[in-house]
Amino acid sequence: KGELRMQGLTFDDAGMYQCIAENVHGIIYANAELKIVASPPTFEFNPMKKKILAAKGGRVIIECKPKAAPKPKFSWSKGTELLVNGSRIRIWDDGSLEIINVTKLDEGRYTCFAENNRGKANSTGVLEMTEATRITLAPLNVDVTVGENATMQCIASHDPTLDLTFIWSLNGFVIDFEKEHEHYERNVMV
Question: Does a structural domain hold residue 99?
Answer without folding.
Answer: yes
